[in-house]
Amino acid sequence: MTEDDATKEHEKDIYPLEDEQSSKYRTYSILSYFIVLVIIGLPVWWYTTRVYRADLPLVEMSSLELESKLSKQLGIPLSLEYEVLITIVNPDPGQLKIVLDSKQLSYAVEPFLKRISSIAQFTVKSQWLYMADIGVVPKKLDNEFVIEEDQLPHIITPLEKNLWSHLSPRPCLNLVLYVPECSSSPLNIYKKVGKDKVKSTSNAMLSPSWGGVYILNPDTESCENKLFKPELEKIASTFIAQLKNLLHLNDYRNRNDLRKLHKRKARDMIESSKRTLKSLAQLLSEINSIVISDEVAEKIKIALENAQNAELYLKADENDLALKFAKVAFNYSEKSFGDPSLLALLYFPDDQKYAVYIPLFLPIMIPVLMSLLTVKKNFKTLKTKN
């Protein structure tokens, strides 16, 4: 017997080999750990930590064709609801009392808004504003005071902070009636025509995305009596003209002009809906951790379907039907894109998930994998003996 054989016999006496039954139990134990951790544990972990995302027509959303440029013809924010805020500004009520029923002024504007209510819902509100400065120092020119049209932003800024329009959840169209003090009257607006400055016939200014300002000068007799009774119809007609300019509408009584307005509104809403859906599809493809619930998915599908139908009707020159479907598409596309549930797991992406769970699984998996290698070696050994 050689020295190596003697050593092996000695080791057998000190460390007796496991019997066949114990070896099977050890193998079964290792395999059970592997099944529980890898075959069952990992899929369960992946399923329970995955982000739920309902089925979406992402291919259709991504393939939507957009115009190269959004239409700006309406000049006002695109919405299904607007607030029309009529503000009467009296900078010095102690020197001049203005007799004007703001409710009657609102009622005088409402027939025009009802006529165009098919494009959006309009809510008319009114308010009085006292001791408010116009924000600019008018220039004295002969017997009048002058404000230039390019000074309009300087007028809007001080007025805006005193209006409650910025508190409204809906876009607000401001119609401001400013009655200057008698000491600063007459106050006239001069517009730039070419190189010349021409006195405005309406004495009103317009900001396409904000609204308009109408300056109404009190006459000399009213200043002497400290009582001014402006003509309601004149003010209402000026405000209606400003609203028509904001909407690019020539004559709201003309059916052809209304059809053109419906077509512009439908086209803008279709384009906005398509851009929103396409942006959402791109966002979902780039960020996998955004949750899409069944409710949001349903909104997206409704928006996509109605946008496609509206586009078909618009091509067929069915403007009223196109507007009807476009409003639904715009409404649901905005709701789906702004749904709070989209941000549920936005700040827990996959790389953070791996960083949290790998330190937990890795120390457990290494011994299991090493044991599997041992089982594999034992299996080969038994196979060789057999």
Automatic annotation (TrEMBL):
Q: Name a biological process GO annotation.
A: GPI anchor biosynthetic process
Record keyword Cytoplasm present: no
Localisation: Endoplasmic reticulum membrane
| Assigned GO CC terms | endoplasmic reticulum membrane
Which UniProt keyword terms apply here? Endoplasmic reticulum, Glycoprotein, GPI-anchor biosynthesis, Membrane, Transmembrane, Transmembrane helix
Give the metabolic or biological pathway: Glycolipid biosynthesis; glycosylphosphatidylinositol-anchor biosynthesis
Principal location? endoplasmic reticulum
Q: Report the Pfam families cross-referenced here.
A: PIG-S
Topological type in the membrane: Multi-pass membrane protein
Is the Endoplasmic reticulum keyword given for this protein?
yes
Q: Which domain of life is it from?
A: Eukaryota
Instruction: Give the transmembrane region(s).
Output: 30-48, 354-375
Q: Which PANTHER family match?
A: GPI TRANSAMIDASE COMPONENT PIG-S (PTHR21072:SF13)
Query: What is the similarity comment for this entry?
Result: Belongs to the PIGS family.
Q: What name has this protein been given in UniProt? A: GPI transamidase component PIG-S
